[in-house]
Amino acid sequence: MTSRTSLLALSLLLPFAACASEPDVADADTAVVVPSETVTTPDPMTTDTTMMTDGTMAPEVTAQGTVDAVTNAGGLTALSVPAANDNIDGWIAQLEGNPDFAPVVTDLRTLKTQLAASPIDGAAVGATLQSLGSATTGAAGGDSALETLGSTLTSAGNQLAGGM
């Protein structure tokens, strides 16, 4: 019986004996890995991303970013449809859920649908842009970028709608 007890005691102590010969964690040589920083040039129309209701990421847009993108494209009607859609998605994501902006979100969804049509109905797009321009200018509250965006939308809407 004593041999079994001795074997049991030895089997219980063996793991502790093995640990005693291991170096202390504080003595271990550790290396710190710092990831390199990637520098990217941001799209002037976007600043961040926002989750859309369909689970996709939409760009978070700013008034100044939108104005810059329109200017760089050579005007609102020169902006590509994919770039316009990205911008529209960003504005919808940013404004959705705020009851004060429900009419603007409706107009943005209408505009996105109009831009997907073939052929695009310029007069209908113009009317939607006029509405968006008016709402944007009305919400500007002295913000020069929003005022510029509102007047840009209204001007392009007037041109497309036949100079109203």
Task: Give a written overview of the molecule.
With 164 residues, the chain is mainly alpha-helical. It contains 6 helices and 2 strands. It has a two-stranded antiparallel sheet with strand order 1-2. α2 crosses α6 and α5 (122-139) runs antiparallel to α6 (144-160). The longest helix is centred in the first third of the chain and has 19 residues, at 2-20. The radius of gyration is 31 Å and the shape is globular. The protein starts with a helix and ends with a helix. Residues 1-23 and 30-54 have low confidence and may be disordered.
List keywords for this structure.
164 residues, mainly alpha, two-stranded antiparallel sheet, 58% helix, globular, disordered N terminus
Topology:
Blueprint: H1 2-20, E1 46-51, E2 57-61, H2 63-73, H3 81-95, H4 102-116, H5 122-139, H6 144-160
Antiparallel strand pairs: 1-2
Helix pairs in contact: 2-6, 3-4, 4-5, 5-6
Rg estimate, integer Å: 31 Å
Mean pLDDT score: 75
Q: Number of helix segments?
A: 6
Strand order of the largest sheet: 1-2
Total DSSP E strands = 2
Report the principal-axis shape: globular
- Strand and helix order: HEEHHHHH
Summarize the structure.
This protein is 58% helix and 7% strand. By secondary structure, the chain is mainly alpha-helical.
